[in-house]
Amino acid sequence: MAAHLSDDTGCEPGQAGVFGGSFWQYEFNTDKSTPDPEYRVRVNCMNEHAAEIPAGSHGMLCCFSDVMNYIHWIHASPTFTNFELDPERFNKYTFYRAILENTALLVRGHIDLVKEATGNEPSELIFAGGASKCSLWAQIVADVTGKNVRIPEVKEATALGAAVLAGYGVGIYPSIAEGAKRVVKWDKTFSPNPDNKAVYDQLYVQWKDVYKSQLELAEE
Question: Is 112 found in the same domain as 10?
Answer without folding.
Answer: no
